[in-house]
Amino acid sequence: MTKPEILLVGPYPEWDLVELEAQYAVRKLYEADDREAFLKLHGPNIRAVATRGELGAAAGLIVKLPKLEVISVYGVGYDAVDLQACRERGIRVTNTPDVLTNDVADLGVAMMLVQSRGMIGAETWVRDGSWEAKGLYPLKRRVWGRKAGVLGLGRIGFEVAKRLKGFDMDIAYSDVSAKPYAEGMIFIADPVELARHADFLFVTLAASAATKHIVSKDVIEALGPEGMLINISRASNIDEEALLSALESGALGSAALDVFEGEPKLNPRFLKLDNVLVQPHHASGTIETRKAMGKLVRDNLAAHFAGAALPTPVL
Ligand code: 8YV
C-alpha cells in the first residue's frame, strides 16, 4: 500500500519524524530551497499538513494543495489556520489541547515570579561582580497576596489561577461570561476594569480575529505604572505598539512576554527595555509535553486515514 503523502511546514523533533516517516511519505517544506517548485511538484499529492502554527508564514499554502483532507496543528492555538477556507473545502483541522495546559500555566507563573523579583538582573548582579563591588541587590516587588487578573479563563487560564491561589493572591478574571468553575474568583467582564483591579494581568485567551488587540492602550494604561502584563497566548491579543510605548514611558510597569508579533524576529525596541522579560515562545516547551503533542498530531492523522473519529478536532 502506498503511504499517504503529508507536508511538514516546519521541522519536528526527531522522535516525531521517525514515527511520521514510518507511516507517511513525508514532504518537508522547510527544507525546500525553492518553495514554489517544491509545492508544484508535491502539492498535488499532499493529503495532510502537519504544522506548528506557521501556516501564517505560508499564507496561501492550502490553495496549492488540491487533495488536502486534514491539517493537524502541533499546538492548542490554531489561529494561523484559515478555518473558513477549510470549512468551504471540507478540510478537517485538529489541534493538541490539554496535554500542554500545565506547562503553559507553569511558565506564565514562573515569568511573573522571575520578573517581579528581578531574578534575571539578580543573576547578572552575582556573575558580573556587582554583589561584591556594590553590595545588596535593589529591592523588588512581592508576588504573594497581591491582585491577579486572568484574561480568558479557559483551560490554561484556569490552571494559572489555580497556581496563583497557592500564592494567596486575590484573583479576578474576564471572559465572555462568568464561569461556574471559577470558585473564589471575581468575575469582571470588562478587560479595562480587570486591568484596573490587577497588579498582574495574565493574557490566556485563544486568539482570533475577535480578540485582536483586546489588550488595548486603555487596558495597558489601566494596569498602570505598578502593573505587570504577562502574555502566554498570542501576540495578536495585544496592541504591541501601545505596549511598547507604555513600557518606554513608564505608563506600564513591566511585562513578561513569551510571544511577539513577527516572531522570531522581535521589534528591536523590546531589547532596549529593562522592564520586559522576553521568552522565545516556549511555554509548551518541555520534552514531556512536546512528546505528548507529537503523539496527538499523529493520533489525529492516523484516525483520519483510518476513517475513525478524530481525537481532538477543531473542525
Ligand atoms: C506551539 C503554541 O505550537 O500550543 C500553542 O498554541 O503556540 C505552542 O505550543 C509550539 O511552541 C510549537 O511551535
UniProtKB/TrEMBL annotation:
Coiled coil location: none
Domain D-isomer specific 2-hydroxyacid dehydrogenase NAD-binding span(s) in chain numbering: 109-283
Keyword NAD: yes
Alphabetic keyword roster: NAD, Oxidoreductase
SUPFAM superfamilies attached to this UniProt entry: Formate/glycerate dehydrogenase catalytic domain-like, NAD(P)-binding Rossmann-fold domains
Keyword Oxidoreductase: yes
InterPro entries for this protein: D-isomer_2-hydroxyacid_DH (IPR050223), D-isomer_2_OHA_DH_cat_dom (IPR006139), D-isomer_DH_NAD-bd (IPR006140), NAD(P)-bd_dom_sf (IPR036291)
Occurrences of domain D-isomer specific 2-hydroxyacid dehydrogenase catalytic (ranges): 29-314
Assigned protein family: Belongs to the D-isomer specific 2-hydroxyacid dehydrogenase family.
Protein name: Lactate dehydrogenase-like 2-hydroxyacid dehydrogenase
Organism of provenance: Neorhizobium huautlense
